[in-house]
Amino acid sequence: MVTVKDLLKIKGHDVYTVAVDATVFEALKLMADKGVGALVVMAGEKLTGIISERDYARKIILKGKFSRDTLVREIMASKVICAQPDYTLEDCMALMTQRRVRHMPVLDSGRLLGIISIGDVVKAIISNRETTQAVINSLLRLSLEDIGFDQFLKRAVELMLSVPWLAFEKQGSIFLTENDSDLLVMKAQSGLSENIKVKCAQLPFGRCLCGRAAMTRELQFASGLDDRHEIRYEGIVPHGHYCVPIVHGEKVLGVINMYVRQGHKRDQREEAFLSAVANTLAGIIQRKRLERELVQTERLAAIGQTVAGIAHCVKGILFGLEGGVYVVNKALRIDDKDKLYTGWNMVQRNIDKVSALVFDLLSYSKERLPDYEYCSLNEIANEVVELMEPRVTHSSFGKIEMIRDFDPKIGKVRLDPKGIHRCLLNLVSNAIDACFYDPNEAKAHFIKVTTRREPDGGIMIQVSDNGCGMDKGIQKQLFTGLFSTKGSKGTGLGLPVTQKIVQEHGGILTVDSTPEKGSVFTISLPVDQKEDKTIFSKGGGYK
Ligand SMILES: Nc1ncnc2c1ncn2[C@@H]1O[C@H](COP(=O)(O)OP(=O)(O)O)[C@@H](O)[C@H]1O
Ligand SMILES: [Mg+2]
Questions:
Q1: 66 and 81: one domain?
Q2: Residue 348, domain member (yes or no)
């Protein structure tokens, strides 16, 4: 809400006056010198009228008089329409149009504070409209940037609070509904105390002002802590609110909550601003949700396409299990301990394969949020190497050397241990396959697992091998769909799942490979991630 006082702050308090007994010529000269269209007329200390260029045109020129011979008092308007400092721009606009005046002196208890023209008022109104448009443009631009959705909402709150002509306190938040339920969840805030963050973390429709805005789909305004403000706490400072529902079609997507000073008057233009932002946010939220659903649908469609391939893979595992069970049964019958060991190993290996497949399918098909903990990355990497070592030492192919290149100074790293374990398992098992598939059997094969704490605090995890490597054609397809060169032995899920888990950690997965020479897969994780980087993240972890 902009008042005359705000306008004078920008425009200045200068008022040019002329004495009532001065000649019109003197008045005109002053107007020309100062570049103004009107002067306040004073009789001593007293405001007695106002004289404008229009008075000169109508009352001197048209009447054939001369400005040097005429006194200001003869042509001035003596009924002066004045403004008060707390008038809004809209009040002024209405008054000036109604009374047909172009200039209004501003009086505060009889004291002359300044003068405003209709041009000043129009300019200020236009500039306010422009800021609304600028905020909406910024929101639209931000929505296209590659920042997490929670981050986008936080910036939206900050943008709303940054508009100078709105009388919001420097506090606000945005709530969104979860899964089409009647529950509002606070997704972004600025300036709220810990107390409010906890008390208002979740609100059912109907509760307090925000809940009412969601339930009624109507803006709720309160100039103070009235009965509707159900959430209270010790030490609550009196304040008011604008709570504006974010509605798309029939659906309530959330609520914008802004704080105003106790006793603040409801203002139409503030409402219009907030409604414009709410409408823009509704479009953006809906678009983001659809995008997310689309990614989900595409992923499911991709899974659908490869169900046949997966069924094939499961069949292979079943064969392996049946084989193992057969060997175990036979070993029991003939009481052969060695055979029993071999058969049991076959069963275990195939159970591992099934659980890995199920894990990958679940990770790939669902949006997940890493279950962060501070853990020892080297221990995770070591577990993976230990788990895979029997595969390379007991193979008929010959020995593949497993090299542990762990950074002893890496310390505790904040990540999802199960997720990162899975990534490493996928990369190491691909590296083993790459050595098996290498036509150059004479090569001394090795697989190296590296962990590093980068100088900037970021984490690097690398799996390199000197196996068969990949040509550019294969490299291009690695993450596009469920791509595999291993026929029924592969699912093509390993790398997409690994990439997805890495991205959900806010990191990136890169590949460097040369045919016949080998490949290097590098996971780079950002410095200790404290915030969720995922869009519309939901709990879950890689369980
Ligand atoms: N270390 C590697 N060396 C050579 N090729 C690799 C390596 N890792 C992955 N690939 C190629 O990428 C393909 C996809 O890998 P992945 O997604 O794990 O599925 P899968 O292992 O089931 O085939 C593999 O089939 C293989 O052609
Ligand atoms: Mg694989």
A1: yes
A2: yes
